[in-house]
């Protein structure tokens, strides 16, 4: 005879120790008259007893030590960069900024057009596409900055000539009282701008004092930003 | 959860490794045995249990004090074990329904004429048979049975550990029990 689902449910409820007094009676009453269900109940009860008798196995030796060793290893594995980033969120932001800025500056560097700038007084003339000339007899009081071109100095420069990615063709008659600086590497170029910025900002700074100083790169970037803005 | 345990966990959250070592000592037997019954192979179970503790340590901030620590820890252990089984034995096994689990049909049992095992005496042999049969249950039923019988946890706790409703836990335990009955009794 097929017994209903509710009785099966009740049997499990009894085994789960969740059945009420009344429900237990109901099961008892039923299995007293139904062999199938009695057998089923007994078998399930037997299974339950077997399952309850299960014991736990011993944990392998040095388990805790092994876990602690793994934890120590894991701590080492966590890359230093990540740790640094976690501890210095500002540093992380700064790093991102530097990366983006570097990309931006690099693109500027790549596209930079020919230009010549006189910081001070004096006239210059142009020859061909990318050549700037300081004419004979002309004196430039101040610095001459040339980017991505050539410079021919036939006159005088009372100051520095700064060649960014540029060559100079110094005529014999030409004269430069200051230095001729060639800036051909991107980092030099950056550094040059930074120095320039400082010199202008603080005015009294000696020419080369800052060159060897390990000024934080981030700060240099900030300075450069200023410069770029100034130059439009 | 005892006050001592709460104190230990607080210390762990502050980065105290000694305190965590004590937590491991407290729970290693349970965690190891859950993993062992889930995956069967002792070496794998040890790896999984260690991994469970490692994850508990690295994610200790995610543990909320108002819940039972054991529930949280066992959850990590069962999830790792189930993941392991999924990777090891993919496909049919996991979603397979237990034969005979549809306990509604009483006639299914009529065929079994075998005598019952000796009255409530469980020998080592029987024990091995029980373990073997537990191993044959699909992982989700196995997990429920293990947590109930080996850890003696309440249905509510099991539901929290497995992340399923209490009603589902009941169904799994009932079906698991039915399936085990079939296999144990027919031996």
Keywords:
heterodimer; A: alpha/beta; 2 domains; 6-stranded mixed sheet; 4-stranded mixed sheet; 8 helices; B: 187 residues; mainly alpha; Rna Polymerase Sigma Factor, Chain: A; Arc Repressor Mutant, subunit A; globular
Give a nutshell description of this structure.
The complex is a heterodimer of chains A (232) and B (187). Chain A has 8 helices and 10 strands. Chain A is of the alpha/beta class and 232 residues long.
Written description of the protein model:
The complex is a heterodimer of chains A (232) and B (187). Chain A is 52% helix and 19% strand. Chain A is of the alpha/beta class and 232 residues long. In chain A, the strands form two sheets. In chain A, strands 1, 4, 6, 7, 9 and 10 form a six-stranded mixed β-sheet that branches. In chain A, strands 2-3-5-8 form a four-stranded mixed β-sheet, with no helix packed on it. Chain A contains eight helices and ten strands. Chain A folds into two domains: 5-52, no CATH class; 109-231, no CATH class. Chain B is an all-alpha fold. The A-B interface holds A 1-3, 5, 8-9, 12, 15-16, 36-37, 39-40, 42-44, 46-60, 63-64, 66-68, 70-72, 74 and B 17, 20-21, 24-25, 28-30, 32-33, 36, 42, 46, 49-50, 53-54, 57-58, 103-107, 109-110, 112, 116-117, 120, 122, 126-127, 130-131, 145, 148-150, 155, 170, 173-174, 177-178, 180-181, 184-185.
Topology of this structure?
The complex is a heterodimer of chains A (232) and B (187).
Chain A (H helix, E strand, L loop, with lengths): L4 H11 L5 H13 L1 H18 L10 H15 L2 H8 L1 H23 L3 E7 L3 E3 L3 E4 L4 E9 L2 E4 L2 E3 L2 E4 L2 E4 L4 E2 L3 E4 L2 H17 L14 H15 L1
Parallel strand pairs in A: 3-5, 4-6, 4-7, 5-8, 6-9, 7-10
Antiparallel strand pairs in A: 1-4, 2-3
Chain B lengths: L2 H11 L3 H23 L2 H17 L10 H20 L3 H4 L28 H13 L2 H12 L4 H8 L3 H20 L2
Helix pairs in contact in B: 1-2, 2-3, 2-4, 2-7, 3-4, 4-8, 6-9, 7-9, 8-9
